[in-house]
Write a structure and sequence with these properties.
five-stranded mixed beta sheet; TPR repeat; single chain; alpha+beta; globular; 14 helices; four-stranded antiparallel beta sheet; 19% strand; TPR-like_helical_dom_sf
């Protein structure tokens, strides 16, 4: 079963508030080649179920697997065999290795676990780790591997995979995640580290320049830190820097929908005296406009604004992998062509037909990715006098939150199609 079909079960369970069934289903993958992916999915599932301790364990194991992959200076024998097997079949035989944008989300979601358990210091450690990988990706962009395909062939493939490129054009990198920078800034601000908070609010603003809440945060801290020159650079007006004594802040972080799944496309691969059809992953679905969270707090209506367009981050991550995919597919075509020739020479027409059938049936694209991630991540922010307030998320969904003086109350809202998960914590 292709991975998106499996993950659809997790998404449906989240949408129906039946998380236990999704956890049970994903547990079957914890020991196999999709173990990293299963830990990521389970970390997300346990977290939305409110079981932060078990979510923490799952993300720890996922992040440890990421670290282990980093430490492999050379391929082990087993990994080499897996790579060789993949050349005569498909990339699904290779253990899932994730990508950097998923790793950044894993650190951020682990930070949410620590926030929920009252450990802001540990949460900040996770956010620093997330930023380490964001900085590493920004400072070191590896050139694509050389391809044996002609320029015309490369151009043809890029045209056929055009929907992925179009979706990726909405971001500049798969790792520039304003949602991550914003949560880090919140934690720095909550712990009195205003210079660090200001730096990360600015980084969030550089990625989401039209977000008025982030604009206000940068203006507020620039005023407080007396960075008037930077106010001019960002074209912002000074804001009141200090809260009144009996006033607190409510920050609503909103995660909406599900990131799209990869789909499979079969493309012809030219080879002397023959043609092969090879499978590639791509994003077929066009960009979907993000939906803001419209809510009422203390009878004031607010709409959230976009921080991270995860669907475009995922597409950019795949776009970055396409040059390597083309190289592997070139090698796969060479290997299959050689097997076909040997079968024809040594076994005659019957064996040749069998090998040809195997080559066709074994050709499947690797469609794996972390599919319980949200489609988009958004923010809204408001200042209120200390007290208890009703929060109305829909005509049938109401809760209450506590605002403490001179403190940030963090509200996390996750909408998974038909169900909404809400949690709040003081920072």
């Amino acid at each position: 079963m292709p991975y998106p079909a499996r993950a659809l079960q997790y998404q449906q369970a989240l949408s129906q508030a039946q998380i236990d069934s999704a956890i049970k289903s994903s547990s079957k993958q914890l020991k196999g080649k999709d173990a990293l992916l299963a830990h990521l999915e389970q970390g997300r599932l346990y977290q939305l179920a409110g079981n932060y301790a078990l979510s923490e364990q799952q993300f720890k194991q996922a992040l440890q697997q990421f670290d282990d992959l980093d430490q492999r200076a050379t391929l082990s024998l087993s990994s080499g065999l897996e790579q060789s097997s993949a050349l005569v079949s498909n990339d699904n035989l290779i253990p899932y290795q994730g990508n950097l944008f998923e790793r950044i989300f894993a650190h951020q979601f682990q930070a949410f676990n620590y926030i929920a358990q009252g450990d802001k210091s540990a949460a900040l450690v996770e956010m620093r780790r997330a930023q380490f990988f964001q900085d590493k990706a920004r400072d070191k962009q590896a050139p694509p591997p050389p391809s044996e395909l002609s320029n015309d062939a490369n151009s043809t493939y890029q045209q056929r995979l055009g929907s992925t490129y179009e979706l990726a054009q909405r971001v500049n990198s798969s790792t520039e995640n304003a949602y991550s920078f914003y949560l880090a800034a919140l934690l720095y601000e909550a712990t009195g580290q205003l210079d660090d908070a200001y730096i990360d609010y600015k980084r969030a603003l550089s990625i989401a320049p039209n977000n008025r809440f982030v604009q206000q945060d940068v203006a507020r801290l620039a005023t407080r830190l007396q960075r008037t020159d930077e106010l001019k650079r960002f074209n912002l007006k000074p804001l009141t820097a200090n809260l009144p004594a009996n006033t607190g802040t409510v920050v609503v972080l909103y995660e909406e929908g599900f990131v799209p799944a990869k789909e499979e496309i079969f493309l012809p691969f030219p080879w002397p005296q023959s043609w092969y059809v090879l499978a590639f992953p791509y994003y077929k679905q066009a960009w979907q406009a993000t939906e803001p969270l419209s809510f009422s707090l203390n009878h004031q209506s607010l709409d959230s604004q976009l921080l991270a367009d995860t669907q475009s981050l995922a597409a950019y991550a795949l776009k970055e992998q396409i040059p390597s995919l083309l190289v592997r597919q070139t090698l796969r075509a060479q290997t299959k062509h050689k097997l076909q020739q040997e079968a024809n020479d040594k076994g005659g027409a019957v064996l040749g037909l069998l090998v040809s059938a195997y080559n066709i049936l074994s050709e499947n694209a690797d469609l794996r990715s972390w599919l319980t991630l949200p489609r988009s991540c958004q923010v809204a922010r408001i200042q209120l006098s200390a007290g208890q307030y009703p929060l109305t998320l829909s005509p049938t969904l109401n809760t209450s939150i506590t605002v403490n003086p001179q403190q940030i109350t963090l509200v996390r809202v996750v909408k998974t199609n038909n169900h909404v998960y809400v949690a709040s914590w003081p920072l």
